Each structure stands twice: as C-alpha cells, then as structure tokens.
Amino acid sequence: MKYQRIMLKLSGEALSTPGGFGLDSTKLKEVAASIKRVSDEGIQLAIVVGGGNIWRYRDSKESGFERTASDAMGMLATIMNSVGLQSALEDLEQYTRICSSIDVPQLAEPYLRRRAIRHMEKGRIVLCAGGTGNPYFTTDSAAALRALELGCEIILKATNVDGVYDKDPDKHKDAKKYDELTFQEAIEKNLSVMDQAAFSLCRDQKLPIRVFNFSDRDNLLKAAIGKDIGTLVM
Question: Which of 28, 87, 135, 206 could be stapled to 71 by a disulfide with Cβ–Cβ 3.0 to 4.6 Å?
C-alpha cells in the first residue's frame, strides 16, 4: 500500500444531478461507497468538496453580487455538500467528522489541525468544509492547504476526464494525455491541473497531485493504493 493518508478533492458536480445542479441521492450513495472502500483498506482520508453544484463565482459574475459575498455563498455551499456526503457515508456506517473553516456549530466542528489529525488516526473520514474561510481562494487552494497541514502524502483530484491533456479532449480528437508531468512542465504548458495558487503551493512544498477519472468508481481505490492511473504531477 503506497499511501497512508491522502487528500481527496471532489468537485461539487460529482454529487449533483445530471444537469450539474443540486444534490442527487444516487450520486451521493455511489460516491460514499467508493470512498468507504478506501477507508476499509486502512487508508486515512481527508476530503475537500467544491460547491459549484450550488454556487460558484465564475458562473455568477453577471448576478451583481460583490465578489466577497459571492465567495461566502460558495463557502456555505461546500458545507451543504459536506453535510450531504457525511449523511451518505454514515448510512454505510463510516464515521466522519466535518471540520469547517466557518463557524457553524450546529452542523460541524471548527477546523483545528490537531483534532482533524486525531480523527483520521481513529479511522474517521474528515470532511474539510468552508474552503479556506477567506474569499478569493478556491476549494483547490483549500485542498492544497489542508493536505499540507494534515500531512497528506498526495492530493487525488477527481475529475470527469482520465488525466491531464495538452488540450481539451472533448473538443480535440488529437489531444495528448500525459501519464506524468513535472510541476514546471505543467506551468510552462499552462495546463489546467489546479488553480495557480493551489498549484504553486503544491509545487513549492513538493506535494504530488494525481488527476484521475472519477466516473469509474474503482479508480479512487486504484489511485489510493498507488496504481498508475490518470496523470501524476510531481
């Protein structure tokens, strides 16, 4: 087994209806089952879920909301998604804790690094909600920050494509997939691995990222045990 503690970065859309909005109970159950398989292998898990299925600034620039207010709504959306995922996981008798950067004591405990680590050591999955707690930072940045704070060995970024390509594979049939990339190559080629703030943090701290296709529910376990799937950025 290659990894003992991992950070899983999920998009909000992974939990949503086929149209990409809201929460879908079937998707939640499927995602929860895939995550539990990893936990059952004794791998410690922290998870950051995005909020794009409910609210995202870049999709609502024309709404008139000021950026900090819009980002606050997005952070609350990640808490909603985390509560939904927690419920699905606990239906499978998988203990979880939501640790939030925003104070919502009725729903989650505050994020405290030592407490979150202790939860994982006890076999609980930690859902890091509320982003970084600050505007202008994406959940990619939250995943990178929390992964480093919690001593995760890798970030597993779940997407709807099977790795990183030199151009959009949905639009270009000749798109080339990379099996491995260095951080420098990804920067020079301007590849969309994560947003730049998150990517720079991972690069500077030498935290690898594996990008993989989450549509195949077996892929999460494969990535968690170190199988060469998707694209590894290191």
Answer: 135
The yes or no reply on domain 5-233 and CATH 3.40.1160.10 is yes
Instruction: Please answer whether residues 49 and 78 qualify as being in contact, where contact means their C-beta atoms are separated by less than 8 angstroms.
Output: yes
DSSP the chain: ---SEEEEEE-GGGGS-TTS-S--HHHHHHHHHHHHHHHHTT-EEEEEE--TTT--GGG-GGG---HHHHHHHHHHHHHHHHHHHHHHHHHTT--EEEEESS--TTT-EEP-HHHHHHHHHTT-EEEEESTTSSTT--HHHHHHHHHHHTT-S-EEEEESSSSEESS-TTT-TTPPEESEE-HHHHHHTT--SS-HHHHHHHHHHT--EEEEESSSTTHHHHHHTT---SEEE-
Write down the domain spans for the chain.
5-233
Q: Residue 134 burial (CB < 10 Å; 0-12/13-18/19+)?
A: middle
Beta bridge partners of 7: 46, 155
Residue pLDDT, tens place only, 64-85 = 778 888 889 999 999 999 999 9
CA–CA–CA angle 14, 20, 24 (5° rounding): 60
Other C-beta atoms closer than 10 Å to the C-beta of 154 total 22
Structure tokens at 176: 């080339």
User: Is residue 168 over pLDDT 80?
Assistant: no
- Nearby residues of 171 by Cβ (< 8 Å), 6 or more positions away: none
Write down the pLDDT at residue 59. 63
